[in-house]
Amino acid sequence: MLDLLDKCAKGIPFDDTFEFKDAEGTLKWVRSIGLPVYAKSGEITHLEGTFQDVSEQVKREEELRESKTYFSLAMQGANLGVWDWYLKDNSVEFDARWCQMLGLDVKEIPMELSTWESRVHPDDLESCYSDIKAYLDGKTEYYENVHRMKHAEGHWVYILDRGRISDWDADGNPTRFTGTHMDITEVESLKRERDHIFSEFKIGTFKWDIVNNHVEWDANNFKVFGVDEKDFGNAYEAWASCLHPDWTERAQQDVQDALQGSGGFDTVFRVKTSNDSPKYIRGVAKIERNGKGEPLFMTGLNMDITAQYIAEKELERKKEVDIHQAKLASIGELAAGVGHEINNPLSIINGYLKMLERRIVEAAAKDEKVSELTHKIGQASERIKNIVKGLRNFSRAIDNETSEFSLKEVIEESVDMLREIYLSEGVHVSLDLSGSKDDFCVLAVRGQLQQIILNLIANAKDASEGRENRKVEISLFTEGDQHVLKVSDNGKGIPSAIAKKIFEPFFTTKEVNRGTGIGLSMAQRLAGHNSGSIDFQSVEGEGTDFYLRLPQHIKNTLAPDLSPDSGPNSSNEERKYRVLLLDDEEDIREIVGFQLENMGFEVYGFATGAEALESIESGGLQYDFVISDVKMPVMSGGQFLDELRTKHRNSYKYFVFITGGTNIDFEDPSNEFKDKIDGYIYKPFSDEALGHLLLNLADSEEQVPAAALAKAS
């Protein structure tokens, strides 16, 4: 202060601020102004001035300087440049950091709007001004835009630009627009990489503002859902409207469960598509909550998992089918054992019944009542025979070998097996073969075809539940080059809303534990494997007709048309055909022997393979036919056959198996006897069937494969 006074005394005025201690010893900031006062003579006579306490003003200036320092450090730390746009003259102030991001020198660039405009990518400039206008029109809280700007070195830099009006004139018009400028090139690069990955793997992102019910989807999300962005309403309801009707309730319940719970959201749902093709999406999200636990935001991903979902369901379906097939195999094994035990005594019943009938006729003492009773016994045994015959084919349900066979025969077997069972449940099963002019030969897998037929009949039976007069009607006819099996029920029909779904795996309208939903799906698949198809027609309230369509097949080889009534010696009276008959059951030997002798054969019966071999070795007889049971104690039919083929091949001409085993399939290429035998027949069999088989062999010029022989049962 003294220095200032000394200078002022010499004629130098002053205006300065300095610290000053008042009478109480408090330091204050003081502004002092001093002027010299001159006399007329020109000499300085005294000094005049002011003394002002400016402590508060100095304090505020210091705080402002500190704020600017902190602001500068913050902008530098956040990598933000600052710009001020003065709207009246379009002048702009860019700070050093703004320039640095673009490789520019703050001292050399023009401080005007054109400096910014000239460096914005031409494709991005329009969106910048569009966002500025939206802010100025009050549509957004602040201006924000991401655009590219050209660096001084020639490459493009991604800039996040934000700003707000910072000053207005007296009329309330904006005069100053202030904002920040941030280089987000690295972030944008990562985002673009993420978007590329998400696009490749069909992943979209979403954010749902739960309080305001506003949903934001990224571009990938629209692709995932197959929705046009302009058609999306940006609300929860817009998402819900994309859901497939069958999945709407479940998916929305999953959302509500997530909002009410404490965890996140993770579910799978199906969405609608323009061509109704299946599309499945997995939605995963986290939920932000306030201090009270109330949901605020749901942020997450939607992933197209259609291929994965269908593959998993197909795997599940295959597992269910495998389990189903395993059950069929177990039932088949049981059926085989039961069938074998039934067929032998049934053969005895049938055989003795035939003998009894012949003796009644021969004695000319035919009693009508006895005839009626024997006829009823015959009918009952025929029913048992047909059921066991069905079990035999059912036990081969997992067979995958294609062969030619009569569709008519398989249908008759299936109906015979089920008719009595269903009748006990109040379901009348009728079979109309009036349109059948032949055997309806097909080339297919017999066991698979029977699975289809049994499934269609069972499905029709279930559909008729609740009707007073439950019925299933089955018919067979030809359309063009296809054989058609029609299975009709008088149930309630199939509603049009689910008509397209009935062949989908696991779809069922039955109650829990009443059905798996794989029956029709499996039937359709098996039909396709056999070059066929399944379709249906249904009228609600009246019933449904299912159609199994299979291509016609022309037999490659036709069996000789021989009359079973003509005996083997009708044209060869000089000698009888000699037969070795091997069966461990005495009654079977007696009955079959009686049948053969009645047809003119010379029969030698044996109870064991050892006895038969001993007779051959000691007697030296040659046999035209060897007829042997398959399942026997001590030495089986297969072991006996091997002994003959190895040691006594010249002792016989033709070898034929007879068996009651329902699980033996001589036509199976893997069957060990397929190339070793000349014929086979299943118990119980008629005189005519056995004679027909042997006559075919006897009239052959050379031994023929078993597959070409006539088969009767």
Secondary-structure map with pairings?
Elements: H1 2-9, E1 14-21, E2 27-38, E3 44-53, H2 55-77, E4 80-86, E5 91-94, H3 96-101, H4 113-117, H5 122-136, E6 143-150, E7 156-168, E8 174-183, H6 185-200, E9 203-209, E10 214-217, H7 219-225, H8 236-240, H9 248-260, E11 265-270, E12 280-289, E13 295-304, H10 306-362, H11 368-394, E14 402-406, H12 407-423, E15 427-432, E16 441-445, H13 446-463, E17 470-479, E18 482-489, H14 519-529, E19 533-539, E20 543-551, E21 578-582, H15 586-598, E22 602-606, H16 609-619, E23 623-629, H17 637-647, E24 652-659, E25 679-682, H18 687-698
Parallel strand pairs: 15-17, 21-22, 21-23, 23-24, 24-25
Antiparallel strand pairs: 1-2, 2-3, 4-5, 4-8, 6-7, 7-8, 9-10, 9-13, 11-12, 12-13, 14-16, 17-18, 18-20, 19-20
Helix pairs in contact: 10-11, 10-15, 11-12, 12-13, 13-14
